[in-house]
């Protein structure tokens, strides 16, 4: 029995989801430190390898968001990148402060090559205390810190918006099979949608009635037991 469980554990441990691990990193109460500790607790022999793999995927994905941000803000990737001196001498900063500062930062980053990214800043910051933020809305955290983390905030919100289960979509397809049958396959899309919503409402009502009946029977059973004891 133990060997069978070990085989199943090894299978799921090898096939763990990188994207879900990234989602945990973007919880400011967890970050990479907690995941490293969990990996080490589960399997010390592979924890360092999995942590390194996670960092690699995280950095690669972030670079894609960086390229998208720079490209959309600066136009063509083959455009000329001015030096800091060119930017200052070209026009007063007061004319377009945001644009000039953006180009200045881009120029400094390309010339010096040592500018810390938003990802570096986020990972190096202290984690939030879980006791102080027990009910933190992580998506709202990244929305409020958009100005601080820029492209990283966009990446975090995209990842955190991914559903962690496919049950909802599978359920929708299952209900759809009850609506579209070989004998009823020419319904208009709006009629199919109306039928799906009706079936879902009926199912919800049935489930609610079942819960109420279960609760009522439980209460009545406890009352009968009390009366028998008396």
Question: Any idea what the shape is?
Answer: extended
Radius of gyration: 27 Å
Would you report the number of β strands?
Answer: 0
Structural class: mainly alpha
Helix content: over 70%
Task: Name the average pLDDT.
Answer: 75
Q: What is the fold's blueprint, element by element?
A:
Elements: H1 2-14, H2 18-25, H3 31-42, H4 47-74, H5 84-90, H6 97-112, H7 118-124, H8 138-144, H9 146-149, H10 151-160, H11 167-179, H12 189-229
Helix pairs in contact: 3-4, 4-10, 8-10, 11-12
Domain HAT C-terminal dimerisation: 119-198
InterPro entries: hAT-like_transposase_RNase-H (IPR025525), HATC_C_dom (IPR008906), RNaseH-like_sf (IPR012337)
GO molecular function, one term: protein dimerization activity
């Amino acid at each position: 029995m133990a060997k069978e469980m070990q085989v199943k554990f090894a299978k799921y441990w090898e096939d763990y989801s990188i994207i879900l691990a990234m989602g945990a990193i973007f919880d400011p109460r967890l970050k990479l430190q907690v995941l490293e500790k969990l990996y080490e607790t589960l399997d010390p022999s592979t924890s360092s390898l999995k942590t390194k793999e996670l960092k690699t995927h995280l950095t690669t994905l972030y670079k894609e968001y960086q390229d998208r941000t720079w490209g959309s803000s600066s136009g063509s990737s083959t455009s000329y990148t001015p030096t800091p001196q060119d930017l200052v001498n070209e026009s007063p900063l007061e004319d377009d402060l945001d644009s000039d500062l953006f180009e200045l930062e881009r120029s400094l980053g390309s010339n010096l090559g040592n500018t810390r990214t938003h990802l570096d800043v986020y990972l190096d910051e202290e984690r939030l205390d879980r006791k102080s933020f027990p009910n933190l809305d992580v998506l709202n955290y990244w929305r409020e810190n958009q100005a601080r983390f820029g492209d990283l905030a966009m990446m975090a919100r995209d990842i955190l918006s991914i559903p962690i289960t496919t049950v909802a979509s599978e359920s929708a397809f299952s209900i759809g099979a009850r609506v579209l049958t070989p004998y009823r396959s020419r319904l208009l899309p709006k009629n199919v949608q109306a039928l799906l919503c009706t079936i879902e409402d009926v199912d919800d009502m049935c489930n609610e009635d079942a819960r109420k009946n279960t609760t009522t029977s439980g209460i009545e059973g406890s009352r009968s037991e009390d009366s028998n004891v008396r």
